[in-house]
Amino acid sequence: MLDVSRWRWGCSGITPSTLSVAGVLLVTACGASSPAPAVERISALSQVPDRPISRYLPAKQQLLSIQRQQTLAINECLRSRGITAKVSDDPVSLNKFVDILVSDRKVRTDIYGLFDPESAPHYGYASPDESARRFQPTVPAAVPTQQFHECWQEAEDFGRGLSVVMEESGLPEGGPESATETDEVQAAWKEWAECMDKFGFAYRSPVDALRDRAWALDEGVSTLEIKVATADMSCKRATNLVGKTLAAQMRLDEEYVKAKGDELEGLTYEWPTPS
Amino acid sequence: MSAPRRVTTAIVAALLAIVGAIAVSPAASAISRVSCSNNSYLWIFSNQTTCWANAGTANVNLYSTHGYSSGNNAGRVVRNAAGSYYFSKYTSDNWTIDRVIQITIY
Which pLDDT score is estimated for A169? Predict the structure, then answer.
């Protein structure tokens, strides 16, 4: 059920009771942007809802198909140059990689950083299988490096931006505006940062904690990383950071979907047919 | 759209003037070398660490690299000795010293 008491945007001075009298037409008449989705309390990964743009992003099978088609195109290019050895993709590694890409749409984001309360106390900001977050095609020694690069580029150009790692970049105009600069997200980050400060950690935003370069330079996961990530999850739950930031992003998503509806419905992520 | 992809051409041009010339030949793209001022960029670690933003492909010669941090970029990095691999957002890796010859951000 729609909870109008949670609408925080639109014309000033409009209260739920006003709305109950005047109805939705009033919101339309004052030119307000879309009402924000209700802020839900989110304390577990399983509670993170799909975003309005989620259904327009490439599904796992589409990403696998893109990679398959690109590899076929690379091999066709190599064959045309007289090279019979073939590039291949290890199916197990590729499958894992794509699984993580898809699950990361909720686990690692630009608005709330990492949200995986089950994993963080054990793996910090990394994944249980961090190496699976990278994927390397198998290039036999019989394929000259330069020829591979040229054929990869040829396939890349032919695919017109289709890639196994494409996400919102594949959407019209690169996807919806990020909510990071909105007042709602900035306020949520500030509240979260104050909570983190009580644990002795100074970060401006949860995204800064996720991409702290100290984690990149560490070999493995350090004790400090575990401590920061664990505090991060506690503060996200305490301040409902995920629920608040997602509500702001969903409002922008909905505006984007409304504006780009026809283009979005036309997305197929199909590899072009060779002429 | 992610923040680093909103770096304006003017800012990038100014930053390039500051950091100096580099062997980059963008392939009809907007990928740019930027000042390493933000952890959302793609960082390629070396004794002269470089940072990258915006979607596209750049052919480069980055010597003595030993790892990367992807920030909020998904893409592909090609090394001279170890070949290419795709990486997702918010990943990092350390590798044996190698030359990076191509970078793609999607």
Answer: 78
